[in-house]
Amino acid sequence: MKIDSSLPLEYSTEENRLKIFGFWIFLGAEIVLFATLFTVYFTLHTRTGSGPDGAEIFELTPVLWETFLLLTSSFTIGLGVHAMRIGRKKAMMTFFIITLLLGLGFLAIEIDEFVTYVHEGATIQTSAFLSSLMTLLGTHGAHVTFGFFWGVAILIQVAKRGLNPQTANKAFIFSLYWHFLDVVWIFIFSFVYLKGLIS
C-alpha cells in the first residue's frame, strides 16, 4: 500500500481517496432521500384534517436548543478532524466524544418533543401533515442515532489501533456524514419549524 505523506492521513492512499469519493456518492443518494421527504412534507403540510397545525404544536425553545447542539457538534467534529491531521490522538478522541455527547443531547430533546406531540394528540395517524412531519424528523433522528453508534465504533478503533491511514479515513468519512446531518437540520429548522411558527 503506497502512502503519500504529502496528503492528509485520510487521503494518503489511493484506496482512501476512492472510499471518500464513494462516500460523496452515497451522500448524493441521501440528498435525494431527504429531498423526497421535504417534497412530501411541503405537499402535505396544509393537510391538517381535524388535527393541529405547526403553529399549534411547534415550540421554539427546544428547537433552538436542538439547533445549538447540532451546530456546536459540527464545530467540535471539525476540531477533531484538525487534531487528527496533526497527529493529536487524545485531542481528536476528546472532540469526537464531545460531538457524540452533543448528538445525544439533541436526540434527548427530539424524543421529548415527540412524546409531547403524542400527549397532545398529534400522532403519525392524526393527519397527513403530522405523518409527513414525523417521517421527516424521524428519518433525520434515526440517522443521528446511527451516527452516534458509528462514532462510538470509530473511537474504539482509534483507541485500539491509533491514528493510521485506515482509522483516519473512517473518522473523516464519519465527519462528512455528521456535517451532512447538520446541513439537513438547518433546512428542517428553517423551512419546517420557523415557517410553521410564522404561518
From TrEMBL:
GO terms for cellular component: plasma membrane. It is found in: Cell membrane. One of its GO terms (biological process) is aerobic electron transport chain. Its EC number is 1.10.3.-. It is an enzyme of class 1 (oxidoreductase). It catalyses: 2 a quinol + O2 = 2 a quinone + 2 H2O. The keyword Cell membrane applies. It comes from the Bacteria. Gene3D superfamilies: Cytochrome c oxidase, subunit III, four-helix bundle. Catalyzes quinol oxidation with the concomitant reduction of oxygen to water. Belongs to the cytochrome c oxidase subunit 3 family. This is Quinol oxidase subunit 3. It comes from Lysinibacillus capsici.
